[in-house]
Structure formats: structure tokens, C-alpha cells
Amino acid sequence: GSGQVAMYAGLQELGVANGEDLKETLTNCTEPLKAIEQFQTENGVLLPSLQSALPFLDLHGTPRLEFHQSVFDELREKLLERVSAIALEGKLEERYKKLEDLLEKSFSLVKMPSIQPVVMCVMKHLPKVPEKKLKLVMADKDLYKACAVEVKRQIWQDNQALFGDEVSPLLKQYILEKENILFSNDISVLHNFFSPSPKTRRQGEVVQKLTQMIGRNVKLYDMVLQFLRTLFLRTRNVHYCTLRAELLMSLHDLEINEISNVDPCHKFTWCLDACIREKFVDNKRARELQGFLDGVKKGQEQVLGDLSMILCDPFAINTLALSTIRHLQDLVGQDTLPRESPDLLLLLRMLSLGQGAWDMIDSQVFKEPKMEAELITRFLPMLMSFVVDDHTYNVDQKLPSEEKGPIPYPSSIPEAFTKFLQENRIACEIGLYYILHITKQRNKNAFLRLLPALVETFSDLAFSDIFLHLLTGNLTLLGDEFALEEFCTSLFDGFFLTACSRKENVHRHVLRLLLHLHHKVAPAKLESLQKALEPTKQ
């Protein structure tokens, strides 16, 4: 059958007899037994000492095939070892010349399952497999599948479409994994989306596979970055920015300097990676990061596109935003204004660069976004005044109350705050992180005061998955408040339910929260929520 043909594919070209030759011999001869004996002698293992030994094996009932097979397997192992050894010994030109000769001799047998591993091994050790051979491998699905990643890299680097087909399912898997974490049913303030360290994240399956596929090949690395940029532009999905940073740092971990040294973002990403690990930008690293940004030379502005993508990674934004909130609290204690703090201004500069990534890559205009003065002179002082309100209120609670009774918590919010959250992206991001901060502190009063400002925010950021994932986690700390009608009405009717019908993701996050806290919610409220959350007919 055709299987038989494949088994002996290519032998004839080498002048080695195969099954077809034996058939022909037997069809055209008068004494078949003599002919078989002669064929065996001509094509057997040519070792004089074997002539007497073979009949001895026959006596023991060992079939000749079994004997030849074991000799063959033994020889193949030796040959594989030898090929790997040749690849390491002698002068470079000589060893590659030897391997190329071997490939020339053996390639015609590449379809023979028994010989294929040897041919593949030879190609694997050749830094440049001849173009003609690569084309033959590429044209044959089974051969392509069977060849080592070292050979595939040589094929991929000149075939972007083929490489794209290999990478694409991995990128899809990566995005899916991120979304599964954001929507996971385990809601906790301790284990959230941002808990795993950068080192742990880089051990993920997709990053490891991509790292393996790229090897030390700068061209393939550049192709992957191009895919990530294109997908980020097409989808605005920020997880592609995370992968961009993780991939660079994965190559950094393996000390693949051929690549990390030519990526202009390497040192910046390395420094930022350390900040992300600590979830804080300390002064020393702040200086370093600023040095990189100030060091972008005339004519090299394009690197800002790459840096902005690194800064747009949610893990970077998270670190910058948390650091900003910490700085603001420190400034309240030091009686200093935001505009007098160079560290704070640098954090804002990096936040702007990260938040402006999509626009920069889309427009191909590589310059740092302008910082709005109002953000620094009006919005941040307003946040600081909220911190002061909390201090004042807490002190008031401890003072012996006069006849006029306790001072109520300020309930109104400045109109300007709501307007900033609607119109200014950076203000909105920092405002949302401030709300996460007070929720984590179990500050119910401050939370209920600012919550109404979240119904309408810049590009609906308050209904984005990352924010809702973090908010639901932090709300578990206010679990006991869910028994109170007023709290539930503010949170659900006043915030979540305003978006549930138009945003499927908000619906999912509310269900996650209720799955976790339903036993705390007053029964009547739970019932009305279940009605409100029933899927629509569509």
C-alpha cells in the first residue's frame, strides 16, 4: 500500500534496493529461493563475522526483520549522537560543512519515518538550512510539523503570515486568561488581578511559548511586537500592553542580550518592573525613570510610542496610581501643594504618557501629551481636601459633643469634581483609585459621598472591568453595610443598575458581588435586585 511506499521513500535515489526491487527480482526469476538468498547477501549488513552468526539467530526463531530493526535502531542512536557532537566540534565553517554534506546525502530520505529523526536533527543544528530545503519542508504539512523550533524560526523569519498563524491562537488565549481572572468568582481583597508578581506572571504558558518561539531571533521578536501594536490599535485592549512588557522581561530573565539590548525600552521597562513588584515608585527609581524620559533625543521620538505602550500596561497604571494616592496623603501631612512636588509631577507625566498610548500610536505623532494645569492646581488639591475632611470628621467624633450635637459627615461633592471625572482622563483614573483607597479603608461615609460622581465618567472608566474587579473586591470589607437599605440603594440603584442594561460586563460584576455577599443583603432588597438583574428577553 501507500504506507509501504512512504516507508521506503527516497531509497532508490540513493541506489539502495527496496521492496519494489525485490518484487521485480522475484517476478522475473526461475529459482525464487536462490534469488532471495542472493538479495539478502547483497543488501544485508556487510560484516564477515555476521555470516556465521545469523543462522544461529535463525535457530532461536529470531526473525531477520527484528534483528535488522535492532541493529538499525542502535545505528540511528549512534548517528544522532554523532550529529549532535559534530555540531559542537572543530571550526565553525568545518562543522557546518560536514552537516551540510550530511543533509545533502540524507534529505531524500526525510519522508522515511525511521530516518526522519536523523534528517531533522541535522537541520536543527544548522544555523542556516539551505533555502531549497526550507521551501520543501514548508510545503509539506507533516514535515513542517515534525521539524524542530530552530528550523521553524528560519522559516518564520521570512514568512510573517505563517508566523502570524502560529502566534495568533496564543494571543487569543492570553486575552482570554486575563478576562477569566477579572470575572473570576473568587472575590477577595487579598487576591486580585494585580496580586501575582511580575516574575510569576512571566512564567505563564503563553509568555513562555512565545519566548521559546522567538529564541534569539530579533526579527521574530520585532514581528511579535508588530502584532501586539496592531492588535492594541484594532481593539484598544490594554492586556496587549502587558504582554509587550512581559515578553521583554522574559527575554531579560533569560539574559538574551541579542534582543533586550536592541529594544530601546529595555532599561526603562526593567526599572518599572521593579516598581510594579513593590507596587510603589520610590524616589531613587523615580529619578531613574525620569532620566530615561528626559533622555529621549531629537530624531528618536518614536521610542515614546513604545514607552507609552509599556506605561499603558494596567500593572504599570496600577502602580503609578497607587503611588499617586500615597503621595497626596503625604502632601496633606507636609502642608505642601501638588505643584511643589517633583515626584508627584513625574507620576502624572508617566500616567499621561500611558493613558495617551493609543492616540500616539494611532496618530504616529510622537510627543509627550500636554499636562493640563488644572489637574495639578485644582483637581489634586480637591482630593487632598477630601483627605482633610476625613481627618477633621474623625477628630470631631472624638471631641466631647456640645449641645449642638455631633457634626455630620459632609455629604455634598463639589461640582468640579464630577466634571473632572467626566472630562479629564487622568483625573478620572486618579479619582477612581482614590475611591478604591477609601473603600479599602472601610470608609463608608467617604464612599457614599463620592459614589454619585461615578455614574458618568470619562469614557465610562468607572464601568471598566479592571475598576469593577477591584471595587467588588474592596466592597467585601464593607460586607456588614449590605444589610442596610440605604447603603444598598446607593450602591445598586444609584450606581450599578444605571449601567447594567447597556453593559453586559457590569451585569456580570454585580452577579459576582451578590454571589459572594447575598447572605448579607436584606431579603426584601435581595428579591428586588434579583428581579432587576434577570436577563432581558433578548
Question: What layout of secondary structure does this protein have?
Answer:
Blueprint: H1 2-7, H2 19-27, H3 32-43, H4 48-59, H5 64-86, H6 92-106, H7 116-124, H8 131-139, H9 141-146, H10 149-156, H11 160-182, H12 198-201, H13 205-214, H14 218-235, H15 239-253, H16 257-260, H17 266-278, H18 283-294, H19 303-312, H20 314-334, H21 342-355, H22 357-363, H23 373-398, H24 415-423, H25 425-440, H26 444-450, H27 465-475, H28 485-500, H29 504-517, H30 523-533
Key attributes of the depicted protein:
NELFB factor, COBRA1, 0% strand, 4 domains, 538 residues, mainly alpha, 69% helix
Short description:
This protein has 538 residues and is mainly α.
Count up the domains: 4
Largest sheet features: none
Rg calc: 34 Å
Q: What is the percent of helical residues?
A: 55-70%
Shape: elongated
- Give the helix/strand class: mainly alpha
What does the average pLDDT come to?
Answer: 89
Low-confidence stretches are none
Q: What's the end-to-end separation, in Å?
A: 57 Å
Order of helices and strands: HHHHHHHHHHHHHHHHHHHHHHHHHHHHHH
Beta-sheet strand percentage? Answer: under 5%
Number of strands: 0
Number of helical segments with 4 or more residues = 30
